[in-house]
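Hi, here's the filled form for the chain we discussed.

Project: internal
Contact: R.S.
Residues: 211
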Amino acid sequence: MGVQLEMTRERASGFTALELVLVLGLIATLTAVVGWGLRDSGTAARADAAALQAAAVIRSARIHAILGRAESRVLVADSPVDPERHRRVFTIVVRDARDPSRWAAVRGELLLPEGIRFLEDANRAGGEMRLTYPCNHPVEEGRGPLWTYYAFTAAGEFRSPGAVFRFGPDPQSGRPDSSGPSGTEGGEPIAGFYVSRIGAVEMITDPEELR
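And the returned structure, exactly as it came back:
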């Protein structure tokens, strides 16, 4: 009886490893489907797709942190000299258990839909790190291109009181876009989501909340 009660408590306390792996697979599938289905859509739809894809990466990073019992980081390319990648590439790395100065990649890169960029989180909750990527084995921090990162603890908590992630047309375009809400100007956020301290992700449906 006591053993059965203990097992029930453990089961109720969180996900099993199998459930977390299945969720990771579902997130990866949905990310690919969203990107494929909206690759030729208008700016507003592509911004929505970018937000959904990036939110899936955030959720995946949290799960990797919990499964691996190690800090994970979502990396966002921060290289203005490379406009094809700058604020358009997201990926995930996890801290190496044997050498805390090294990081290992746990997924491929996500490239946001054409013409859409991450416009920085409204709370400026991210840090900066240099890391060579892609990395098939753990690599040392401090070398390679610059990335903006957002971290989760081994317990799956977001290392910030909270952050609003915003997405919209390339700020360099400066062109009005009639497909956005009320004729959105280039560079203004038109899609996004909120990440809480406990790691929960909530999509934002009102563009006014992004400004």
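Let me know if anything looks off before we file it.
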